[in-house]
């Protein structure tokens, strides 16, 4: 599944234990105005999990910071700097933390309407096919009845019998 990239938020991986949000902010401020710095904490240890996020006000500043800081060293550790992907959460139609729960309501209703329309069209098509098959069966039955009636008529009709005899004699000669 393609995940949209947040062009002004950077993922910074490989952080040393000593690095905090203030140090991360100081390391990235030369590239432009920073809107936010986060270093998610491990719930068990209450220490950051060796990565963080830096959000710049401008996309261009984030691009410059990524170009310059990816592979750079901070507190003896080599940093990995990439564009951040939206945080994935469990559940929900699209599962993105950045969206409110009602964000996909319109598309959900559209999909429901499309599904109902598709089911209605399929039901109409099935009904039309059944009607066509029934019509074909009736037509075939009528043709068979007509053939039988012609055979019966020719047996009962003395003129038809005479014509059949003449045809048979001319064909055999």
UniProtKB/TrEMBL annotation:
Q: Where is this region: Disordered?
A: 126-173
The record ties this protein, via SMART domains, to: RRM
Q: Which UniProt keywords apply?
A: RNA-binding
- Which InterPro entries does this chain map to? Nucleotide-bd_a/b_plait_sf, PPIE_RRM, RBD_domain_sf, RRM_dom
Superkingdom in the source lineage = Eukaryota
Q: Which residues form the RRM domain?
A: 8-86
Basic and acidic residues bias: start-end ranges: 133-147, 155-164
GO MF terms held by the record: RNA binding
The cross-references to Pfam families, in alphabetical order and at most eight, read: RRM_1
Among PANTHER family, the record links this protein to: ATPASE E1, RRM DOMAIN-CONTAINING PROTEIN
Supply the name of the protein: RRM domain-containing protein
Q: Write down the species.
A: Vitis rotundifolia
